[in-house]
Amino acid sequence: MAEPGPFRSPASAVRLCARLLCWSLAAAMAGAAVDAFGEPRAGWWGAVWPLPWWIFGAAALAWAVLRAREKADPPPPPGCTRGDWEQAA
C-alpha cells in the first residue's frame, strides 16, 4: 500500500510541481494584466507583482529536473504490477 502524503511517489512530486507551474503562470499573467491596464498605487505592488514570475521560473526548472529523473528510472521487470507513478506518464 502506498504511503500517505503528497510525496508518496516521484510522479506525485512531478504532478504537484506541474500544478505549481500552471498556477504561478496564471497568477503572473493576472498580475501583469493588472500592472498593464490598471495603475496600482499600493507601495508594495512594485515588489510583489514580479514574485509569481520568479516562482514560475523556479517551478519550471524543478519540474524539468523531476520529470527527467522520472523518465530516467528503469522500467519495472516483466510481470510486476504497475504503480501509480508508472501510470502517470
Describe this structure in words.
This protein is an all-alpha fold and 89 residues long. Helices cover 66% and strands 0% of the residues. The longest helix has 28 residues, at 10-37. It is rod-shaped, with a radius of gyration of 18 Å. The mean pLDDT is 81.
> Which structural category fits the helices and strands?
mainly alpha
Q: Considering DSSP H and I runs of 4 or more, what fraction of the residues is helical?
A: 55-70%
Shape: rod-shaped
Subunit organisation of the chains: single chain
Major beta-sheet overview = none
Mean pLDDT: 81
Furnish the topology, listing elements before pairings.
Elements: H1 10-37, H2 45-48, H3 51-72, H4 84-88
Helix pairs in contact: 1-3
What attributes characterize this protein structure?
89 residues, mainly alpha, 4 helices, rod-shaped
Summed up:
This protein is mainly alpha-helical and 89 residues long. 66% of the residues lie in helices and 0% in strands. The chain contains 4 helices and no strands.
